[in-house]
User: Fold this.
Amino acid sequence: MSDLVVQQTNDDAAASKRHAVRLGYYEDPFIAAVSRGGGGFAGGGDASKPPEISRGYWARVVALRAILISLLRDVGCRCQVVNLGAGSDTTYMCLCTSWPQADWLPCKWVDADLQDNTSRKVLQVTSNRQLLEAIGGDEVDIVHNRHELHADPYHIVPADLRDPAAVVSTLRSSCGLDADLPTIFLAECVLVYLPVESSEKLLAQLANQFTKSALLHYEQVNLSDRFGEVMLSNFRSRGCDLAGSAACASEDAQRQRLLRAGWPAAAVWTMRRVYAALPQPATARVERIEMLDEREGFDQLLEHYCIAYAASSPFPSEPDLANRLASVR
Assistant:
């Protein structure tokens, strides 16, 4: 599978997020500036998306951000965040503008991805005043070239996750990450494109080099059942072979990969469990935006995606999910 196909999935995800934001599922004032028409996996441009897709993206975005914020608050501002395979993600901009004076904002944030994706994001940020102001604007020194950008504490850098040693070297030498500081790694639908052996090597390298760390990981799960087999077939029909699907066969497969890689503790929650743990007023609001033809299909979709969590001290071994999601509105 080519890198171009993987990059195309990023465009489709951004288009789906933009559609959900436009309908009022959640707020993201920056997604329109970093998204462009998708190429076919989820429908391109501003094409309408099925309600279950928008509702699913809402649950994914608000849950991951709520858990992330709760972890940042646990350890304070002396914390680093690395977004692996960041693509068009706008989490850093949203955090800085929603909580500009918060004392828990990270002291380093890195968006890392394949070079073609970072080149596009650098161009988007440097040519858009709204994005520039979100990362500090005139208050920070911005150094960039075609492929990377440094506006401390925010960095965009090219990184090939198939080369774990080079990834760590880039984080430390180009971005100035401190291996002794608490560090949170984010990975959304990225490890599944790597063979399991490759993703384990990457996870092991991160756990070994950053011993005070946590990982928040969103990905497919339960792919060994009939619904999962259909999902895999649909991806393959579009030229997108999920090389790491064996690690997504079940919740235990996801958990065991993290433990084998050297993380002391790991937990996995299906998105169905996450959705049930979200505050009822929040889910009631979202469910009024668009009606589903039937709930069963949505529940099946939620059962086949998960948030996986791994951690070493000073992060909790398994955060209480309901408490971490209590702030979602």
Notes: The longest helix spans residues 51-75. The first strand starts at residue 80 and ends at 84. Confidence is low (pLDDT under 50) at residues 38-45.
